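Class, look over these structure tokens:
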Amino acid sequence: MNVNEDHNWKFAQCFGDKGESDDITEADIITAVEFDHTGDFLVTGDRGTMTNEKETYLVGPAAIKKGCEYKFHTEFQSHEAEFDYLKSLEIEEKINKIKWCRRQNSAHFLLSTNDKTIKLWKVFEKSLKVVSESVLNDGPQPLSSALRIPKLAHQDTIIAAAPRKVYANAHAYHINSISTNSDSETYISADDLRINLWNLNISDQSFNIVDIKPANMEELTEVITAAEFHPYHCNMFMYSSSKGTIKLSDMRESALCDQHAKNFEETEDPASRSFFSEIISSVSDISFSHDGRYILSRDYLTLKIWDINMDNKPVQTINIHDQLRSKLCDLYENDCIFDKFECTFSGDDSHVMTGSYNNTFHLYDREGKSDITLQADKSAFKAKRLGSSKNKMAMTRGSGKGGVVGSDPTDFNKKILHSSWHPQENTIAVAATNNLFIFT
């Protein structure tokens, strides 16, 4: 499964608008991408501004034997826009996160959340039946006396989606993370100041396990940015903060876990401190390795890999946007400095992936020897459609200076924020604005 030195990554598929139109609406922008635990299914969510344009897409396998080839499976509306009259606040239907639940039967179960409400969805095959009549006529009696029995006959099979649970009114602030537990019974949801523990079967009650809200809000110094359960220790979870720290908590220690946590934090060099230090050190995403030994974290300029047994410094730091250090003032002015890039391990934990600008994303090996930069660009499938022997997309090997491909200037409007790696194969899915690109 290792990525070889020849960088044989190639564009495989694209879902979404393949046209030339630049009229991309907010409703079209993909905001979540997630493979299921088998890798056979892939789900994306977007951010519609009208209820009938707000869908979750579920993509299923077409031909697994030839590598992973996907075809459209179903779509359904997940959330609707709401208005909080008490706070005079409009709640977007935008899907912040989607997580798969472990599959127990032929149906799929997914958790999706917008800023305030989490929903559990069941996606299943439904048989459509029609009534037909059977006639029982054993003898020579007239047809009028024949016994007619209604009979249900199968007509078609459709994919249906039904909300099984709605977990509402538990968060006062915007939900940024949901994470399912390895026990297949519970999950956590995190907002800016609190983390709640839920039982999947109980929608009207949750337990507050982290609360960093100060008595006086003027004393607030940090917010929670992401949270995730350990892959197989059901009592352990981690969460990150805008101060650049990661905390590993054990629910057996205390009912409130924020005071009883292992703190992963790198000591800052006072000489390099600036106005932007805290902003660029804010952790935008965290991810456990599949074996549970390592933690991957992403801040604005770097990727860090931590050993859970060593909390004073990361075992590896990868510079993503080194060339942007001199442009932080401009990035602050155009709000790009607040972009939240996701990060993930490969299925065998040998590589890590994260996004960048110019619709590029990076694959790094754990030894720091290679940086493969790929570009999710519409020219890839144009080249494929024209019968080109090579898909013309940018691939470079370098020292981690992402964001610039060739001599092109950085386009900050094109960015890969959301991505997912197949759990068993070298197949990755990335969201580029309104398109879902799959590379193998």
Notes: The chain has one domain: 11-135+147-439. Residues 1-5, 48-55, 61-66, 387-408 have pLDDT under 50 and may be disordered. The two ends are 11 Å apart (CA to CA).
